[in-house]
Design brief:
It comes from Methanococcus maripaludis (strain C5 / ATCC BAA-1333). Among the domains are: 35-67 and 333-397, no CATH class; 401-541, no CATH class. Helix content is 31%, strand content 24%. It has 15 helices and 29 strands. Strands 11, 12, 13, 14, 15, 16, 17, 18 and 19 form a 9-stranded antiparallel β-sheet that branches. A 6-stranded parallel β-sheet has the order 1-7-4-8-9-10, with helices on both faces. Helix 1 crosses helix 6 and helix 9 runs antiparallel to helix 10 (247-276).
Length: 548
């Protein structure tokens, strides 16, 4: 058994904590054949009372209402009286969000993971995702998680164990503790190109799953990114001082010295492809481009239509909600009968299996020490099928939100508000999945790849396009052809009625902190990983009486 764990002491506490949790027969979920059977399974599995049916059309719960005080958990040194209310036994687990809206770590939301929530939602949901992907006790797993913020990990407070983690790392350690694969590697994203990490992966036998963001896999699949990362790693690692446990890395160093960087990168890529060729990837496919899919297919040795992957949707507030657990229907996610899901659109709330809308904001009722009704996830799901267990699209969209990180754009007032996301309702104009719109416009009209499209809201609405080579003369033609780019009925009508104008302009939105500095702060744990996310579409709210 080979175990490569950057925090083995923490994992030992997890093993002890999870020893009495039972497995579930999740495959039975796929046999659910009616709306009534699905609803019945939810109440049976979750322990929720049918009393919530009186509330779901009226109530909505903001996650802030049940999140913990961040000031308590950001302390380097904790006193027992700070946290004693959290403990029903000697270990308590609190998880935090990734901070997609930006800002500093004081803006993160923190949640207590109760035993009831673990037993009825987290364990069965994560078990279904990983077992459907092929992981079992006699197989190996490769797992990558975000760089921790400074206070994350295991803290001893007198006789108590306090665990603080990103939700994503917590969910992976739930799997390791419950399924207990014979061998595994768990490391941080930032080390995916480290020669020591890669050498450990190459020593694992029978790797059945790789759980990592698509961006991590692409670093291996793109030979230039792999080459750059390997060179940086080798130059910064004293491989001569390695112990016997890292003999594989020492041998790789000798190979590098013998054949040179270019051939070495190709050799490593081939070795990784061979080691991982029978594995299933567990990752979110949201926002993956065709080019990225193509690189991943080539690296994994997949033909089109024969991809081995499991898409998943796991939320900090709601736990594992859906996944591609039916391997004969890989691209759709099956909604687990563990929570009660409601879809809200234009103020109307309906059970996911009964709504007439194809998409909307997801609200979730889930078990806990006190049941929580209609938690507002801020995510948009698209319903593909409502028969039996509901099936949703693999693309999970983020409802629009104001960025907390200070942003700037040349020519705009300092107090301009920046909004990002995948779904907006602006004065009755619905913007749905602008990522697809921007991608299409980029291909048809020649947009600058690294700059977003903007919708500027002031006295009127103005869409600003980052056109290459000063194509402003083509604006009228572009405006005519825009309906071919999935802009949606509301935007199409707004363009016809001149509610939205279109023009070329500078759209180089930047944070007030340089990107390289942001990246370094995330790696050190000073900022949450969410601040690094770039969006293809922003809405700018310009203060009244401002001249742009």
């Amino acid at each position: 058994m080979s175990v490569y764990d950057f925090d083995l002491n923490l994992q030992k506490v997890f093993y002890s904590y999870f020893k009495d949790f039972k497995s579930v027969t999740w495959k039975k979920w796929l046999d659910i054949s009616s709306v009534e059977e699905y609803e019945e399974a939810i109440f049976k599995n979750s322990g929720l009372s049918r009393d919530i049916l009186d509330e779901i059309h009226l109530k909505k719960t903001d996650p802030k209402d049940f999140s913990l005080n961040p000031k308590t958990f950001l302390k380097d040194s904790l006193e027992k009286e700070d946290i004693t209310d959290l403990f029903l036994k000697d270990t308590a687990i609190v998880t935090h969000t990734s901070g997609t809206s930006g800002g500093d770590i004081t803006k993160l939301k923190w949640f207590l993971i109760s035993d009831d929530f673990l037993k009825k939602t987290w364990v069965p949901g994560m078990q279904a995702i990983f077992e459907s992907s092929g992981l079992s006790k006699n197989k190996s797993a490769v797992i990558f998680v975000p760089s921790r913020i400074k206070v994350d990990g295991l803290s001893k407070v007198d006789d108590l164990n306090l665990i603080r983690l990103y939700t994503s790392e917590f969910s992976q350690r739930v799997v390791l503790s419950h399924i207990r694969p014979s061998s595994y590697l768990i490391d941080e994203y930032k080390n995916a190109l480290n020669i020591l990490t890669i050498s450990k992966i190459l020593t694992l036998d029978d790797i059945s799953v790789i759980s990592a963001p698509a961006a991590t896999i692409i670093k291996w699949a793109d030979i230039n990114k792999l080459k750059t990362g390997l060179e940086k790693s080798i130059n910064s690692t004293d491989l001569n001082s390695l112990d016997d446990e890292n003999s594989e890395a020492f041998e790789l160093k000798k190979l590098y010295e013998r054949i040179g960087l270019n051939n070495f990168a190709i050799d490593i890529q081939n070795r990784l492809s061979e080691a991982l060729k029978d594995s299933a990837l567990i990752f979110s496919i949201t926002s993956l481009s065709r080019d990225e899919w193509s690189k991943i297919r080539k690296f994994m040795g997949w033909n089109v239509g024969e991809e081995k992957f499991t898409n998943l949707y796991v939320g900090s507030e709601i736990g594992p909600f859906a996944g591609g657990i039916n391997k004969e229907d890989n691209y759709r996610m099956y909604v687990f009968p563990l929570t009660y899901p409601v879809i809200e659109r234009k103020g109307k709330k309906e059970f996911i299996s009964k709504t007439k809308d194809n998409y909307g904001v997801l609200l979730v009722s889930r078990p806990g020490s006190i049941p929580l009704v209609n938690i507002d996830t801020g995510d948009i799901v698209t319903i593909l099928n409502q028969e039996g267990i509901p099936k949703i699209s693999g693309e999970i969209l983020r409802s629009g939100f104001k960025l907390k990180l200070e942003m700037k754009l040349e020519g705009f007032p300092k107090n301009t508000e920046f909004f990002a996301g995948d779904y907006f309702d602006i004065g009755g104009i619905e913007v749905f999945n602008p990522r697809k719109m921007v991608s299409c416009m980029g291909q048809r009209f020649g947009l600058e790849k690294d700059n977003p499209v903007l919708l500027v809201s002031g006295e009127s609405y103005k869409m600003v396009l980052p056109l290459e080579n000063n194509k402003n003369v083509l604006i009228d033609k572009i405006k005519e052809e825009m309906p071919n780019c999935s802009i949606g009925q509301d935007i199409e009508e707004a363009l016809k009625n001149d509610k939205i104008s279109v023009e070329m302009g500078n759209t180089n939105v930047k944070s007030s902190i340089d990107h390289s500095e942001l990246l370094e702060k995330v790696k050190k744990g000073d900022l949450p990983k969410g601040v690094l996310k770039k969006w293809p579409f922003y809405i700018l709210n310009v203060p009244e009486n401002s001249k742009i």
